[in-house]
């Protein structure tokens, strides 16, 4: 009877340890997932900003290339 009680208590303790480890791993996975999700949001925001800056750069370079012949024409008229 005593051996049976000890084995049941030991088995219950092992099951409790395994269950607590599983809970820890699930919450650790969730915490990592949330962290990676926040990083992905930051990456998406930076990609969006990068694309906006690229468009502005293209527009500025195009406007400078359009204005360049006009400025050269004005400088030639002054000479």
Topology of this protein?
Layout: H1 2-78
Which descriptors apply to this entry?
79 residues, mainly alpha, 0% strand
Structure in words:
By secondary structure, this protein is mainly alpha-helical. It has one helix spanning about 1-79. The protein is built from one helix and no strands. The mean pLDDT is about 85.
Biggest sheet architecture: none
DSSP E strands, number: 0
Helix residue percentage: over 70%
- Portion in strands: under 5%
Distance between the termini: 115 Å
H/I helix tally: 1
Which structural category fits the helices and strands?
Answer: mainly alpha
Shape: rod-shaped
Q: Indicate the low-confidence ranges by residue numbers.
A: none
Mean pLDDT: 86
Q: What oligomeric state is this?
A: single chain
Which value, in Å, is the CA radius of gyration?
34 Å
Question: Which H/E pattern describes the elements?
Answer: H
